[in-house]
Amino acid sequence: MLQMKNISKLYRTELVQTHALRALDLNVRAGELLAVTGPSGSGKTTLLNIAGLLEDFSAGEYRLDGVDVRGLSDDARSRLRNQKIGFIFQSFNLIPDLNLFDNVDVPLRYRGLGRAERKQRIESALERVGLASRMKHYPAELSGGQQQRAAIARALAGEPPLLLADEPTGNLDSQMAREVLEILEQLNAQGATVVIVTHDPEIAARAQRNVHIVDGVATDLEAGPALIRGSEKRLGPIFAA
Amino acid sequence: MRVFYYLELALRSFRRNRVLTALMVLAIALGIGTSMTTLTVLYILAGDPLPGKSDRTFYVQLDAEGKENYQPGGEPNVQLTRADAEALLRARRADAQAMMTGGEGAIQPSEAGREPFHVDVRYTSADFFSMFDVPFARGAGWTEREDEARARVAVISKQLAEKLFAGSDAVGRTIRLDQHELVVSGVLDAWRPTPHFYDLFTGAYEQAEQVFLPFSTSRDLDLERMGNIDCWGEQSMTPTALVAPCAWIQFWVQFEHRDQAAAYRDFLVHYSEQQHESGRFVRPPNVRLRNVMEWLDEGKVVPSDVRLQTWLAFAFLAVCLLNTVGLLLAKFLRRSQEIGVRRALGASRRAIFVQFLVEAGSVGLVGGVLGLGLAWLGLWAVRQQPQDYASLAALDPSMLAVTFVLAVASSCAAGLLPAWRAAHVTPALQLKSQ
Q1: Is residue A25's pLDDT more than 70?
Q2: Among B298, B326, B358, where does a domain finish?
Q3: Which of A62, B35, B257, B433 is spaced 20 to 30 Å from A241 by Cα?
Q4: Spatial contact of B69 and B300, defined as CB atoms under 8 Å apart
Q5: Which of B260, B282, B298 is the last residue of a domain?
Q6: CA nearest A98 in B: which residue?
Q7: d(CA A233, CA A229)
Q8: Residue B432 has pLDDT above 50, yes or no
Q9: Tell me, what's the pLDDT at B304?
């Protein structure tokens, strides 16, 4: 799904050069749940941004679902991002003046889908995260956990094969964090590839594989305890709203 | 259609920042209102009064004056003598030609008890109506033969026909002008050439005359004339006499193709040489042939303060737009986080750019509507002024369209930089920065 070879990222200012990533190799297989850990400033988020085509890399090779992303135009990168990747952020990043329905609609609008299909996908995605009854609510009217579930619904509405999550439980209490993690696990169980950048040892422990980054250098750690895979394959509701 | 989505987002954005949006709309509206007011006045004053023909319709000048105040190559008198005008008319070297001067007279209604009233009159020749595309509601003008025969005929305006004949057909009826009976050959439809280009001496923005009759007839009946008259040499005869050394006639020619004008100019030079040889002209040949727009430029028909006001108004619009650029920048960059999210979810830079440009254009559209109201008010204020063109100041459909195009185009122009900056927000920075 995601193949990075010798990826480097160099930030330059007039005074200093900073190596955010150094000759990083990463291979994430389709259907994997991978945790990326490491201390603050180690390059985790840079890795995620490069993986999500939000940032360019300085050197190396990167293939996303078989597509070589080097030299792609902004339009092509955006299209690829829209079709292949769903983002989940620490601070949810819902658009405050759009209700949940319209927030989940955003990636589908850029996909150019028709009104009926968008509606069906939005309702289905919100139902899967247990927010079907809150479609008309605005982000400010929801708890942190509900907001993150809405953000997950937005990420999965476009049915992307890859989910990138940056500290998805960082702003949540432990109960809500567990709920969100369970959703991610269930999505992974249903076939999605999930890459989670985290400081949370529980998430790292529940991932199939851990990559640890220090000073821009990645080390593939031994896989954590076996992921608790549910047997459920249908896309049913996970939570009651 | 993605653009409808962007319009929907623009509306949401307006609702979210009502005060900021109102300020931008007001800035655009003030700029548009001011510039459209002055531009409309300029457009009306500087418009082409003879579209499609103005570049092949020419005003003729000859230098028939005496030796006094002679400057070689100087501007000849702006009007012709009657002798020259009649000679050029007889020569018929253009496809159409007309001599003319202004006049006035008293109309005596036929019904007993009605008071006579004054009208402006134009004494001209047969081609006047076809040359200047004068519209007829009924009947037609007169013929060259009637010019030569000094026929007692007249063409009258629609308003005069209404006033004298109260809706019944005026063609064939008789009017009394200064006690002389004239048979109506035609009734004009509404016609107000702006400027009153064919005779700037009776007022550049005057209304068209109410009565038109053959020049020859006017001389035969010795009707009252008005307008400028320049005489030179010894004043031993009536200024309007055929051979009097006085310039008081306007002369227009028209060609099928404008390049025929060169040959006509040669003819005028040749005519001047002949007159010089015969001793009638004392100055060497010095002719002018200007088309309608050149003639209006030469006559400085558009007041210079109107041009200045237009420049100032557009400078004001530029200031308003600069303010709008600042407000849009503030508004758009405040939404950097939203931009980052949209980029992460699949919006290209181009999509962000268009989204914000649509938002800027929408501000312009609303500002345009408000600006239209302000322009309407401004033009109302102009109409209250004493200038002779004041009554003409009104928005027509084309200026209405210009208002909206100008409003949307200028606000899009103002939105270019802010939208470009928005499109280049680094998404990665915004997504982590909450």
Answers
A1: yes
A2: B298
A3: B433
A4: no
A5: B298
A6: B12
A7: 10
A8: yes
A9: 81
pLDDT single digits (tens) A218-229? 887 654 443 333
Cβ contact A106–B342 (<8 Å): yes
Q: What's the pLDDT at B433?
A: 54
Instruction: State the residue range of the domain holding A166.
Output: 28-58+73-221
Per-residue confidence (pLDDT) for residue A172, from 0 to 100:
84
Q: Do B191 and B71 share a structural domain? A: yes
Residue of chain B with shortest Cα separation from A53: B344
Query: Is this model's pTM higher than 0.90 or not?
Result: no
**Is A105 an interface residue toward B (CB < 8 Å)?**
no
Cα angle: B66, vertex B72, B77; to 5 degrees: 50
- Give the closest of B341, B351, B432 to A95, CB-based: B341
Please check whether residue B290 is in contact with residue B192, taking contact to mean a CB–CB distance below 8 angstroms. Answer: no
Check if the beta carbon of residue A75 is closer than 8 Å to that of residue A241: no
Q: Is B263 left (phi over 0), alpha (psi -120 to 50) or beta?
A: alpha
| Residue A5 main-chain phi, psi, to 5 deg | -135, 120
B333-338 long-range contacts, Cβ below 8 Å, gap at least 24? B333/B418, B333/B421, B333/B422, B333/B425, B335/B13, B335/B422, B336/B422, B336/B425, B336/B430, B337/A93, B337/B430, B337/B431, B337/B433, B337/B434, B338/A95
Rg (CA), chain B: 30
Helix (H, G, I), strand (E, B) or coil at A129: coil
Question: What's the gap in Å between the CA of B344 and the closest CA on chain A?
Answer: 7
In this structure, is residue A234 part of a structural domain? no
What's the structural domain count of chain A? 1
* B317: containing domain: 2-46+303-432
Task: Give kind and range of the element (H or E) at residue A183.
Answer: helix A174-189
Q: What is the pLDDT of residues B253-273, one digit of tens each?
A: 999 999 999 999 999 999 999
Q: Which structure tokens are listed for A9? A: 């990222």
